[in-house]
């Protein structure tokens, strides 16, 4: 009964903030992975969105911890890194409640994160498998068109880019992008020296993801 009361209170808190909020936050997690990677990525993506798709997102994203009730203040959470990820049972409960209440989590593998985060996603939603999104999904065409699906930004292992999702009631609540590294494409040009057209593709795909998160 106590858990239900807390869940309902957090759900109400989330919807109160969601109705008036277009904000992003970086998700801080335990396990040793570098959750703080790509420090210029989200600020650049926010600037691109505010300039091109009429969002009014705060230019400096906040950082929130997985187990904190603060996550319910943000309709969009971003998570990245290269290494290990570990969620406690309490953190899993909090994150699950957030996602089932209308929240959205984008996990962008910065290279090396996949085996750890997919393990934790199975714990988060044990009865709902990650499914790859086809190129026809609306997230690839709601603002900018990506006829082939998720763009390839960095080579890494040379494998094709893939977007996986957990969907609840036909709404993506968790998006995991792999072998693309969108975040590197969002960073300042001098960080990776990516060509302008590559950075543009990364930012446009990021804008599509944010549009989906805010409107669904």
What does this protein look like?
A seven-stranded mixed β-sheet has the order 2-1-3-4-7-6-5. Mean pLDDT is 91; it is low at 16-20. The protein starts with a helix and ends with a helix. Helix 3 (89-100) links the parallel strand 3 (76-81) and strand 4 (105-109). The protein has a single domain (2-215), classed as Rossmann fold, CATH 3.40.50. The protein is an alpha/beta fold and 216 residues long. Helix content is 38%, strand content 17%. It has helices at residues 2-18, 41-52, 89-100, 114-124, 182-186, 189-192, 196-215, and strands spanning 24-28, 62-65, 76-81, 105-109, 131-132, 162-168, 171-178. The longest helix is centred in the C-terminal third of the chain and has 20 residues, at 196-215.
List key phrases describing it.
7 helices, single chain, alpha/beta, seven-stranded mixed sheet, 38% helix, Rossmann fold
- Second rung of CATH, namely the architecture: 3-Layer(aba) Sandwich
Broad structural category: alpha/beta
Biggest sheet record = 7 strands, mixed
Number of strands: 7
Silhouette: globular
Please, what is the CATH homologous superfamily? Domain of unknown function DUF4159
Q: First CA to last CA: what distance?
A: 29 Å
Number of helices in the DSSP assignment = 7
Helix content percent band: 25-40%
CA radius of gyration is 16 Å
- Structural domain count: 1
- From the 3D structure, determine the CATH topology: Rossmann fold
Beta strand %: 15-25%
Order of helices and strands: HEHEEHEHEEEHHH
Q: Which helices and strands appear, and what pairs or packs with what?
A:
Blueprint: H1 2-18, E1 24-28, H2 41-52, E2 62-65, E3 76-81, H3 89-100, E4 105-109, H4 114-124, E5 131-132, E6 162-168, E7 171-178, H5 182-186, H6 189-192, H7 196-215
Parallel strand pairs: 1-2, 1-3, 3-4, 4-7
Antiparallel strand pairs: 5-6, 6-7
């Amino acid at each position: 009964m106590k858990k239900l009361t807390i869940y309902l209170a957090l759900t109400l808190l989330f919807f109160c903030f969601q109705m008036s909020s277009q904000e992003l936050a970086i998700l801080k997690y335990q396990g040793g992975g570098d959750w703080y990677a790509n420090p210029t990525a989200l600020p650049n993506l926010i600037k691109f969105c505010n300039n091109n798709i009429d969002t009014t997102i705060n230019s400096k994203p906040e950082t929130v911890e997985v187990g904190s009730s603060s996550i319910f203040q943000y309709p969009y959470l971003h998570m990245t890194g290269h290494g290990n990820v570990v969620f406690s049972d309490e953190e899993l409960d909090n994150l699950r409640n957030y996602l089932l209440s209308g929240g959205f989590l984008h996990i962008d593998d910065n290279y090396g994160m996949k085996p750890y985060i997919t393990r934790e996603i199975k714990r988060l939603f044990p009865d709902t498998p990650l499914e790859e999104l086809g190129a026809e999904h609306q997230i690839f065409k709601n603002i900018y068109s990506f006829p082939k699906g998720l763009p390839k930004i960095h080579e890494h292992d040379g494998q094709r880019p893939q977007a996986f999702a957990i969907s609840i009631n036909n709404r993506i609540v968790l998006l995991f992008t792999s072998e693309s590294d969108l975040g590197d494409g969002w960073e300042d040009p001098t960080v990776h020296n990516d060509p302008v057209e590559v950075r543009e593709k990364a930012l446009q795909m990021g804008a599509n993801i944010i549009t989906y998160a805010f409107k669904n």
